[in-house]
Design a protein that fits this description.
mainly alpha; about 80% helix
Length: about 110
């Protein structure tokens, strides 16, 4: 099985974003959400690395985070952090590793 490096990178981006939000703004909610979504994305990437058909955790994480950050971006029109996070997962699909991941683009965004 191929290692889902893009998924691991996305999980690291989410986690680091939550930590940066806490350090810069003192937002405990950013820290908690970043850690929760980061861990979920890491678990999804790990499952997809073991079995490329096991997409459900990754799909649920990317879909909910894309929807949440997409709504935040549309209400504020600020690139950081909502636009970046909504677009980061879209950038992942420019180079789709798995066929089923493409569903997330059409289904959730």
């Amino acid at each position: 099985m191929a290692v889902d490096w893009f998924g691991y990178g996305y999980a690291a981006l989410i986690t680091i974003g939550g930590i940066v939000g806490y350090v810069k703004a003192g937002s405990v909610m950013s820290l908690v959400a970043g850690l929760m979504f980061g861990i979920a994305a890491f678990v999804g990437a790990h499952q997809m690395s073991k079995n490329d058909k096991d997409i459900w955790v990754s799909l649920g994480t990317c879909g909910s985070l894309t929807a949440l950050m997409g709504v935040r971006f549309l209400s504020s029109w600020k690139i950081m952090p909502a636009g970046l996070m909504a677009g980061a997962r879209q950038g992942y699909f420019i180079f789709p590793v798995y066929f089923f991941d493409i569903l997330c683009v059409f289904f959730f965004f």
